[in-house]
């Protein structure tokens, strides 16, 4: 993935995002976008709609556009405080044929094309506190079908890497390269050599996190640390590795665009990812601590 590798080495902050059992799609996405971990019993319901409504960064945003899988997107649109705040663009279940990523990137590009003849959409795309979520299912599908070391899987990595590059080119052009967009690349879970996931094996609980753009720290090359045997042979030792817990991504996204933390979030704001003033970081982590304390009080 040469484009994402260049981001890690020269433009952003990266690390390993550690998730929890069950390493399934729905619990992983709930942790990323809502900041809390589902009960272990969810391992048997990885793709089913959650019957309990919950808060998320989508719900707190001014507007969210989401693209991708019909198995993931509806659970974040359902129960939103304002149903018109979250737009979903999904392919049909019959189209899950390992080509979903190309469809997702194309539909995302079409949104900006449509804005040229839709003044309301054009204005919405220029508001602050907006989120664009691209759910890329192809790697999971190809990993299950062919294994994570197959040529099909490796080719899909290239599709994702190229698609992200083209997407950023599109956004830079649309927004006049105003440098007001933050990007986060991650995954809901990992995958074993056999093409399975769900349990607590490190291959399933370790996922990538790469962040760059507005409000994100540049690579730390002065005192790079955080490496272990897992990343030692990646030739990334010249930049610091900053590991986080998966639920920490939700408060990171909230902080970057200036929205409330999701109400049930237990994630801790990863300060090493933030490029901001000491005062901003102190105020943010204080509010974060108060919010987590409220979770503890309720559970106690």
TrEMBL record:
Q: Which domain of life is it from?
A: Eukaryota
What is an example of a Pfam family matching this protein?
A: Phosphodiest
Q: Name one GO molecular function term.
A: mannose-ethanolamine phosphotransferase activity
**What does the record say about its membrane topology?**
Multi-pass membrane protein
| One BP annotation, GO | GPI anchor biosynthetic process
Query: Which cellular components does GO assign to this protein?
Result: endoplasmic reticulum membrane
Grouped into one coarse class, the protein's main location is endoplasmic reticulum
InterPro entries, alphabetized: Alkaline_phosphatase_core_sf (IPR017850), GPI_EtnP_transferase_1 (IPR007070), Phosphodiest/P_Trfase (IPR002591), PIGN_N (IPR037671)
Q: Where in the cell is it found?
A: Endoplasmic reticulum membrane
The EC designation for this entry is 2.-.-.-
| Top-tier EC class | transferase
Q: Which UniProt keywords apply?
A: Endoplasmic reticulum, Glycoprotein, GPI-anchor biosynthesis, Membrane, Transferase, Transmembrane, Transmembrane helix
Its annotated pathway reads:
Glycolipid biosynthesis; glycosylphosphatidylinositol-anchor biosynthesis
Question: What biological function has been recorded for the protein in this entry?
Answer: Ethanolamine phosphate transferase involved in glycosylphosphatidylinositol-anchor biosynthesis. Transfers ethanolamine phosphate to the first alpha-1,4-linked mannose of the glycosylphosphatidylinositol precursor of GPI-anchor.
Q: What family does the Swiss-Prot or TrEMBL record give for this protein?
A: Belongs to the PIGG/PIGN/PIGO family. PIGN subfamily.
Name recorded for this polypeptide: GPI ethanolamine phosphate transferase 1
